[in-house]
Amino acid sequence: MAEKEALFAEIKQALLKEDEELCKNLVKRALGMKIPASDILLKALQPALVATGERYEKNEFFLTDLMIIGDITKTIMDILQPHLKAEKAGVAGKVVIGTVEGDIHDIGKNIVISVLTGAGFEVYDIGVDQPSKNFVQKAKEVNADIVGASAILGGAKFKVKEIHEELIKAGIRDKIGLICGGWGFTEETAKGFGADYHGEDAWDALKKVEELMRLLKEKRKN
Amino acid sequence: MEIPSSVNWGSLEGAGKWFNVPFHQIDIRFSDEEELEIERYCQKIKENIEKDKMTPMERWKATIEGQEVDRFLVEAIPATPYPTRVLDGFGNVIKPIDAFRYPKLFLKSQLAFCARFGTDYPDVYSFTYGESEWGGKAKLLEMAHPVLVEPGVKTMEDTERLKVPNPYRDGQYPLMLWAMHTMKEIFKKHGLAGVVPVVASCCVRGTTMLQLSIRGLKQGYLDPIKNPDIYHKLMPLSNELAINYAKALRDVGVDIVWCCCHHATHPPEVFKEHIVKYDAEFAKKSGIDGWGYAFNQEKHVPIMHEAGGYDTVKYLMFDMLTPPEFARKFTKEINKPYIGIIEDKKLMEGPSKIEEYVKQLVKIGTSTPGVGFGFSAGTIDYWTPPECVDAYVKYAKQYGKLK
Predict the structure, then answer these.
(1) Averaged pLDDT of chain A
(2) For residues A213 and A192, what is the distance between their CA atoms, to the nearest angstrom?
(3) What part of A 58-117 touches B (C-beta under 8 Å)?
(4) Which tens digits make up the pLDDT trace of B238-289?
(5) pLDDT, position B402
(6) Are residues A61 and A133 part of one domain?
(7) Are A150 and A182 within 8 A, CB to CB?
C-alpha cells in the first residue's frame, strides 16, 4: 500500500518536473505492479494536473510549463488508454472539442484536452478552423455529452453562437452541454452566444464540464 | 543568380493587390469624397481636444518627463478589427479582413475610432506580424488578424535559406508604413501634426515573431527550451527585422513607437538564460519609446531591467494582470512613466466595473508624484459594446483630471 502511494507521489513529481522519460517509466512500473490504470489516473495524474493549475494560478508555472505538461499527459494517456478499456473503467463523460472556424489557435484547447482526459473524460478533438456543422456531426457520431468550442480571435467568437444554433437545428441542444473557452470570453459573452458556460482556464473548464455533467445526469433522470 | 529566399516562398492567402508592393511604389489616392471624410475625422479630433488645457502632444511629453499635466493621458489600443466597426456605425458590415486588404479602409478606421471615442491620439497597432515573409503559408481571416497556417522553418536546414525580410519591400509591411506615413501627412494638412502625436506599435519583438511567423505558436514557444540551437540561430534574424521595422515606422513619420510584449510565457530562468538578451538588444537598437505588457510580468521585468532592457525606453505599459501596485512601484524605482491598461476582458465587463477600474488606477497613478502616469485600454475585443469604450474614455478623463 505504502509502496503504491509512494509511486503515485513519484509520478506526480515527475510530471511536475516535466520529466517525460521518468514519468513514462514510473507509469510502466506501476502497470507492471498490476496497479489499475484508473488508480494511476485518479491518484497520480489528476492530482499532478490540479497542482499544475494551482502553480499557474500562483505565477509559479508559465504557459510553456502547461504546454510541456500537457504533452507529457497525452503520452501517458496513450499508455494508460488500452488498460483503462480492459479494466472497463467508467468514463466521466464524452466531450467533443475543437477550435471554431476562422481561428487556428490550439494551445489552450490542447491543455484543456489534457486536463479533461486526466480527469477521466473521453475527449474527441476535431482540430482547428472547424465549421460549426463539424462540431455537431461529431457530437452526434460519438453520442457526446458536451461540446467544447475554443476561440481566441475576437471576431471568431460568434461562431460559438452558430454551434449553439446548429445543435438546436439538429434537435440535440437540450441533451448536450455547450462550453466555450479562449482569452477574451466572459461568462456574459459566452451566455450571449448561447453557451452554458465558459472556462476561464483549463481547470475552470474541468469544473464547468463536471457541473454540466451533473446537470445533464439530473435532467436525464427526470 | 539570387538564391530564392524565404520572402519568395511564403504566401498570404486572400492578400489584397498591394501585398508585396514596395513602399515607394504604392500609389494609393483618395477621392474627393474620401478627402472630405478624412477632413471630418480631423475636425472631430480637433473638437475633442480643444477644451483641454494641454494638447495631447504636450500631455504626452509632460507625462514622460514627470511634469504636471492637466489630466492623465487617455489612449486606447483598438488593434485592427474593432475600428472597422466604427466605419459602418457598428453595423458589422465592413469586416476586419477588408482593412487588411485595403489600406485606405485601415487608415480611415483608425482615424474614425479616435474621432468617435475621443482618445488623445490614434494608437495604431501593427497589422502585420510578417506572417508569410519567413517562408510560411499564411492566410487572412475574415474577422481577425491574419495567421500563419504552416511555418516555413521546420528544421535547422530551413534556417540556412532564410533571408531577413525588408519592411519597405516585403509582405504587408509597406502597407503599414504607407498608412502611418499618410496619417502624418493628413495631420500636417489639417493642422494636427505636433498637436496630436501619431502613435504606432511595431509589434512584434523577435521572440514573438518566432512564434507568430517563423516557427508557429507551439514550436516558437518551446524552442528556447526544447530547441535552443534553432532558437539562437533564428533570433538575430527575427530581431533584425523587428529593429528595422521599428526604425522604418519612425522614419515614415510616427512620433511614438512602442512594442507589445509578453515575457512571462516562459519561466523566469528560461527568460534569463535564453530570451532577455534579445529583448534588451531590440529595445536599444530599435529606439522604441515604450514596452506594452500583457499578462503578469512581476517575475520577468526585474530581469529585463537588469539586462538593460529599459535603459533607452521612455515608458512602460502594463495591463492589470500585472498587479497595478507592483507596476507602479517598479516603474517608480526605474523612474519611468506607467501607463495602466484596462485589458480587453475588463473592458467588456460594463460601464460600472470600468469606472471601478479607472478609480483603482487613478489612486495608484497619483501615488507617486513626479513619475508620469496614463491610461490605455485594449487591445479591444471585436465584440466590445461601444458603450464600454465610451465609459472608459469618459471615466478616465473625468477621474484623471488632477487638482
Answers:
(1) 92
(2) 21
(3) 59, 61-65, 67-68, 102-107
(4) 999 999 999 999 999 999 999 999 999 999 999 999 999 999 999 999 999 9
(5) 74
(6) no
(7) yes
* B6-399 CATH: 3.20.20.210
The arithmetic mean of pLDDT across residues B98-126, rounded, is 97
Beta strands in B247-390 (DSSP E): 256-261, 290-293, 315-319, 338-342, 373-377
pTM: 0.92
C-alpha cell at B190: 489639417
Taking the C-alpha atoms of residue B153 and residue B215, their distance in angstroms, rounded to an integer, is: 6
Give the residue from chain A lying closest to B85, CA to CA.
A155
The residue of A150, A153, A161 whose CB has the most chain B CBs within 10 angstroms, and thus the best one to mutate to test that interface, is: A153
Chain A, 137-156: which have a CB under 8 Å from a chain B CB?
Answer: 153-156
**Contact across the interface for A67 and B266, Cβ inside 8 Å:** no
B267 contacts A153? CB cut-off 8 A? no
pLDDT tens digits, one per residue of A6-52? 999 999 999 999 999 999 999 999 999 999 999 999 899 989 999 99
pLDDT digits (tens, 9 = 90+) for B362-382: 999 989 889 999 999 999 999
Separation of CA B58 from chain center: 21
Q: Which ipTM value was assigned to this complex?
A: 0.93
Alpha carbon separation from B115 to B44, B46, B109, B399 (Å, rounded): 5, 9, 10, 21
Q: Which of B82, B94, B381 to mutate to test the interface with A (most CBs of A within 10 A)?
A: B381
- Tell me the residue range of the domain where A145 lies: 93-221
pLDDT at B3 (0 to 100): 41
The percent helix, strand, coil of chain A (3-state, each to 5) is 65, 10, 25
Q: Inter-chain contact B265–A62, Cβ cutoff 8 Å?
A: yes
The per-residue pLDDT for range A71-107, each reduced to its tens digit, is 999 899 999 989 988 887 778 899 999 999 888 888 8
Last residue of a domain, one of A86, A104, A139: A86
In chain B, the percentage of residues whose pLDDT exceeds 90 is: 91
Contact residues, A window 166-185, toward B, CB-based 8 Å cutoff:
183-185
For the stretch B198-209, pLDDT in tens is 999 999 999 999
- Using a CB-CB cut-off of 8 Å, the residues of chain A touching B95 are 155
Q: Does A55 touch chain B (CB under 8 A)?
A: no
CB of B84 within 8 A of CB of A154? no
For the cut 70, the answer to whether the pLDDT of residue B7 exceeds it is: no
Instruction: Note whether A68 and A132 are same-domain residues.
Output: no
Q: What is the mean pLDDT of chain B?
A: 95
CA distance A47 to chain B (A): 22
| Phi, psi (deg, nearest 5) at residue B208 | -70, -35
Contacts of B14 (CB under 8 A, 6+ apart): B97, B101, B139, B140
Please tell me whether residues A70 and A112 are part of one structural domain.
no
What is the reported pLDDT for B403? Answer: 63
Q: Do B141 and A155 touch (CB under 8 A)?
A: yes
The distance of B349 to chain A (nearest Cα, Å) reads 8
Alpha-carbon gap, residue B75 to B393, rounded angstroms: 8
Q: Identify the CA nearest to B120 among candidates B62, B179, B169, B178.
A: B62
User: Given a cut of 60, is residue B4 above it in pLDDT?
Assistant: no
Q: Which helix (H) or strand (E) holds A117?
A: helix A107-118
Residue in A with minimal Cα distance to B149? A104
Same domain for A114 and A208: yes
